[in-house]
Design goal:
Radius of gyration: 22 Å
Order of helices and strands: HHHHHHHHHHHHHHH
Strand content: under 5%
Shape: globular
CATH architecture: Up-down Bundle
CATH superfamily: Amino acid/polyamine transporter I
Oligomer: single chain
Number of helices: 15
Number of strands: 0
Distance between the termini: 62 Å
CATH topology: Amino acid/polyamine transporter I
Structural class: mainly alpha
């Protein structure tokens, strides 16, 4: 809302998920139904495009996950600072210690395995949703007569601000392919993924739409909301008690998403090591829990340093890196339709291959609009974009090193 304005926020929230997320979800469901295996998108791209592009997919996903993971501990601290009399001083003193606690507690939970993460996620989901349901009931029961439908318009929104607004919405709705990396550990993965992703998508859309609608009608200062997040909205709608509930829900959300993302991405280095593209240490599994604990610990170490970046910088880098890997999944979907038209697909997009290609151009267009919008910023501060684009190029260097190691391992003694 800070970037798109009062009239543009709901419009972006309606359009971006349909253009960016719906084609992505359909792609993920079809590819996962073909190959519900550990490694997920890495294995899809490998089957469709070969090992080199599969390595690119894994490398970009690996890089994006570092920036993505670094966002949530900072959000956790922002939410908990609501309970302080001086949030700014609290952030200054406690940001690093609390972020580190979140990172390493989540790492420990991930080492315990998928069942532990899943059970905790179910509990945290209830803690997240219940405060928002109370917010909706309180808002509509006490202020229903004063609610008006905003005009859907982007008039007056600068192109650079539009780009950042799109990035924020894209970030809030990305990651539908993350959970496929551990499909080999899931009971009935095809049915489970179709059901869970469908429910999650509808739930997220409804929650965001209602929240933004209430926010727009509350008269709250958007800049203040950007700094203090949704607890300040709860205070305005229902009082201090509701702000506290939303703060607890925000902490639960940050902790739950962090643990889930770490669970998904920690499996990628293992499958790369299994293919001899990374050092064998990455394939080591915990003797008791069977989890890739070395990979999990490495993630925790790297993210512990990345929490110093700003929220906006992390989001832009995150989406640019994620989008590059996602586009390889789109290409893989079309390639497998052409190469293996008769392969079993329990879930299949009900379009022929040509129209599937047209459908997949929609998220590509959203990605390009957001990127060019950010590049049009008048202040000339494009460092995070150049960093992300440079990070994409490191995939070729990493591939050459990995290929050299692979060739060396295959040579006879």
């Amino acid at each position: 809302m800070q970037y798109a304005g009062k009239n543009g926020a709901l419009l972006l929230l309606l359009l971006v998920p349909l253009l960016w997320d719906l084609p992505t979800i359909l792609t993920v469901l079809e590819l996962n139904s073909m190959m519900p295996v550990e490694g997920g998108y890495y294995k899809w791209v490998k089957r469709a495009l070969g090992t080199r592009w599969a390595f690119f997919e894994a490398w970009w996903s690996w890089l994006y996950s570092f920036t993505d993971l670094a966002i949530y501990p900072v959000l956790f601290v922002t939410y908990i600072s609501f309970f302080s009399h001086s949030p700014d001083d609290f952030m200054h003193v406690w940001k690093i210690p609390i972020c580190l606690a979140v990172i390493w507690i989540s790492a420990g939970l991930n080492i315990l395995g998928i069942v532990s993460v899943g059970r905790v996620s179910l509990i945290l989901s209830a803690v997240i949703i219940i405060p928002f349901v109370i917010l909706f009931i309180t808002a509509f029961s006490g202020h229903s007569d004063s609610f008006t439908m905003p005009v859907f318009s982007l008039r007056g929104v600068e192109y650079s601000a539009l780009g950042m607004g799109i990035y924020v919405v894209m970030w809030n709705f990305l990651g539908w392919d993350n959970c496929t990396t551990y499909a080999g550990e899931v009971d009935k993965p095809i049915k489970s993924y179709v059901t869970s992703i469908s429910i999650a998508f509808v739930t997220v859309i409804v929650l965001y739409l209602l929240t933004i609608y209430i926010t727009q009608n509350s008269g709250i200062d958007f800049a203040k909301l950007s700094d203090e997040l949704f607890p300040i909205l709860g205070v305005k709608i229902g009082g201090q008690w509701l702000g506290a509930l939303l703060s607890i829900g925000g902490m639960a959300s940050a902790l739950g998403i962090f643990s889930a993302v770490m669970l998904s991405i920690s499996r990628v280095p293992k499958v790369l090591a299994d293919d001899k593209l990374l050092h064998p240490v990455f394939s080591k599994q915990h003797s008791r829990f069977g989890t890739p604990y070395i990979s999990i610990i490495i993630y925790a170490v790297v993210v512990s340093f990345m929490i110093l970046w700003t929220f906006e910088e992390l989001i832009v880098i995150d989406v640019i890196l994620y989008g590059a890997g996602l586009f390889l999944e789109f290409i893989s979907l079309v390639a497998l339709r052409v190469k293996e038209p008769e392969a079993p697909r329990p879930f299949k997009i009900r379009l022929n291959t040509f129209w599937v290609g047209v459908l997949l151009l929609l998220p590509v267009a959203v990605y390009c609009i957001a990127l060019t919008g950010m590049l049009s910023k008048g202040d000339g501060n494009h460092s995070m974009i150049y960093f992300a684009l440079g990070a994409l190029l490191t995939a070729e260097i990493a591939w050459r090193v990995a290929k050299w190691n692979l060739d060396a391992s295959l040579k006879p003694d």
